[in-house]
Design brief:
CATH class of the largest domain: Mainly Beta
Strand content: 35-45%
Number of domains: 6
Distance between the termini: 114 Å
Largest sheet: 7 strands, mixed
Low-confidence stretches: 1-5, 33-39, 41-73, 150-185
Mean pLDDT: 78
Structural class: alpha+beta
Number of strands: 40
Shape: elongated
Length: about 650
């Protein structure tokens, strides 16, 4: 059953259903609707009125604010920035090392606005106090503004700063003008109209008031104040400093890499020396260790030094001696090494707080040698002085190299008739030998040639037999007897030869030129002029010359100087002149050719040659390949044999 829908009384009346009930109902609804609508309209009208009143009030207040804007504006956006200054002691104290104070702001009232700039010391300045001065640099904006100088009537008073703007402007500041610190005067920035304004000032120390020994940081505070009509509006501050650093040369910080320690026989050693000294106790130094400590600038600066010695000897510095010392170094200190009577090796260690140095060593030898071993260094001597003929290796009883003085003398009167002299019993007739050096570790003994022949020599640690007999250290030590040949032969021919018969491509080679006497024997060392004819030694091969000094040593030289001794390291050969060359880089036979010169007799002025071969690298490679092929073929045969053997074994196993 469909429920009966309710019909509005108004519709019912329109339909003719206007019974009393419908009319009553409709009247009630219409009345209620009218009253509600009327009340709502009244309420909206009231709200609108309130809003309108509020709007008017706000507008009035706004107009009131606008009408109450002060006719005198102030500086806004006041800022101050600083850049610290820095320099080194003794350097320029000028604008390049000055601190910079930059000030800016917005002046809205034109000439009525201003900004003042001054600075004061902050804290305690390094003594003696230096005078700092401020000078105008330039304006900091593109707008019109000027910087003037206002003199303070209360010199040094910062308390009166607020009234300074009322004083009379004396002049427009120039770049060269200066402003003294402490309130005695300060800069004033004023705009010509409402605009941005600003300026930069430099603060530098007065060079005439800075002591050369004064270093440190000078701290200041910049005070920037804005004014309007003489009244302070705002203040801003910023700290800055001027640093005077010590010169790099004055730095006491040690640079370990620049510190050195060297041992020498004298003070101020700049490199290590090989040192051997007599062990007899003495207060006289036999060696020094030079210790230098430097800063990064390379200047010597003091640092403490610790030095110890082990083995023989003691150390001494500043009147203090011992096996271990810790001393105040001066930047360049020499620590002495003294003998203490003990023979042997001394090891010295040196260190500072920043570096430990490699150990240094030296030897102390006994009063007398225990062993002397002599050898002939020059097989042929000339009539006259021969400086290096016999060399002697000397050691004491502990096996330490003995570096005392040795003497060489002829074994008998017969020998002395050929070279040298016998040793007298009353006076010293023996010849002293040169003591060992870093480059020559043996004693080098000279011989004076008198006539052709062979003479025998001995070496002793005493110049005379009488001294040897009287020596408290015991019997003298003599070496094995050696023979020296004195030659008076003259050159008759010349020989050219290589040091080897064959060379690899590009290998170094030595060529020897040897003057010979009429019997084909070598001659004593000397200079032989015109040993070759013009052009010297020639070759068609591409040799690369490597002379000992300059191109004057080339093979084209006609005069030569021969060596008195031989050397396994340099290749020198006694009685010969040595040339060093590099062989061609391809296989060939190298032939040297020359003709005897005018210093030879006519019979010796003939062509001489020397030859050597250079292996063919291609042939050598082919030979290597052939050998490899042969090896491979042998391996192939062996592998085939092994394979067949394995197959046979497999068949037997299956059977």
């Amino acid at each position: 059953m469909t429920p009966k829908k309710q019909v509005s009384p108004a519709i019912r009346i329109l339909r003719g259903e206007g019974d009393a009930s419908a009319r009553a109902t409709h009247l009630e609804a219409a009345t209620r609707k009218f009253l509600v609508t009327t009340n709502e309209r009244k309420q909206m009208s009231t709200k609108t009125n309130f809003k309108r009143i509020a709007l008017v009030a706000v507008a009035a207040l706004g107009l009131g604010v606008l009408s109450s804007v002060p006719s005198q504006a102030t500086v806004t956006g006041l800022t101050v920035t600083t850049v610290n200054g820095t320099t080194t002691l003794g350097a320029s104290l000028d604008t390049t090392t000055a601190a910079v104070v930059a000030v800016s702001g917005l002046g809205t009232a034109g000439a009525g606005d201003s900004i003042s700039v001054t600075f004061i010391a902050k804290g305690t300045l390094p003594a003696p106090t230096a005078v700092a001065r401020m000078a105008f640099v330039d304006t900091a904006t593109g707008n019109a503004s000027s910087v003037t100088r206002v003199m303070d009537t209360v010199a040094g008073s910062i308390a009166a700063l607020g009234t300074q703007n009322a004083e009379t402007v004396t002049t427009t500041m120039a770049v060269s003008d200066s402003i003294t610190a402490g309130g005695a005067a300060f800069g004033v920035i004023t705009p010509s109209a409402a605009s941005y304004m600003g300026a930069r000032f430099e603060v530098q120390l007065e060079s005439t008031t800075v002591s050369r020994g004064t270093t440190g940081v000078y701290n200041y505070t910049a005070i920037v104040t804005s004014y309007f009509a003489g009244a302070v509006v705002a203040t801003a501050t910023a700290d800055f400093s001027i640093t005077i650093a010590a010169l790099a040369s004055e730095s006491l910080t040690i640079a370990p890499g620049s510190s050195t320690a060297f041992m020498g026989i004298t003070t101020g050693a700049t490199s290590d020396a090989v040192i051997s000294a007599l062990a007899t106790a003495s207060t006289t130094p036999v060696a020094y260790v030079r210790v230098v400590t430097k800063n990064a600038n390379g200047d010597a600066k003091p640092e403490s030094i610790t030095a110890t010695i082990s083995g023989a000897g003691i150390l001494s510095f500043g009147g203090i001696s011992g096996t271990s010392l810790t001393v105040a170094g001066t930047g360049g200190s020499d620590i002495s090494v003294l003998p203490d009577g003990r023979a042997g090796t001394a090891t010295i260690t040196i260190s500072t707080p920043t570096r430990s140095f490699p150990s240094k060593t030296m030897t102390f030898y006994a009063v007398a040698p225990a062993t002397l071993v002599a050898t002939v260094s020059a097989p042929l001597a000339v009539v006259g002085t021969n400086s290096d003929v016999v060399r002697v290796t000397a050691t004491d009883s502990a096996g330490v190299s003995w570096n005392g003085t040795l003497y060489i003398y002829a074994s008998s009167a017969t020998d002395a008739a050929i070279a040298g002299a016998v040793r007298a019993t009353a006076a010293s007739s023996a010849i002293a030998c040169a003591v060992p050096t870093a480059t020559q570790p043996a004693h080098v003994c000279p011989v004076s040639g008198i006539a052709a022949g062979t003479a025998k020599f001995k070496v002793s640690n005493y110049a005379t037999a009488a001294l040897a007999t009287a020596a408290a250290s015991g019997a003298e030590v003599t070496s094995n007897e050696v023979s020296v040949v004195v030659s008076i032969a003259t050159v008759a021919t010349v020989k050219i030869e290589f040091d080897k018969a064959s060379y690899a491509p590009g290998e170094r080679a030595r060529i020897y030129v040897t003057p010979l006497d009429s019997t084909g024997k070598a001659l004593p060392a000397g200079t032989y002029s015109n040993l070759f004819a013009s052009g010297g030694i020639s070759t068609a091969s591409a040799l690369t010359f490597a002379g000992s000094t300059t191109t004057a040593d080339s093979l084209t030289a006609v005069s030569i100087t021969t060596s008195a001794t031989s050397s396994s390291s340099s290749g020198a050969r006694a009685g010969s002149m040595q040339y060093t060359v590099y062989m061609p880089v391809s296989g060939a036979t190298v032939t040297l050719s020359a003709t005897g010169g005018t210093s030879l007799p006519i019979a010796g002025r003939v062509a001489v040659t020397g030859t050597a071969t250079v292996s063919d690298s291609g042939a050598a490679a082919l030979a290597a390949v052939t050998a490899l092929a042969t090896t491979v073929a042998s391996l192939k045969t062996l592998i085939t044999t092994l394979t067949n053997l394995v197959l046979k074994i497999q068949k037997k196993v299956k059977a």
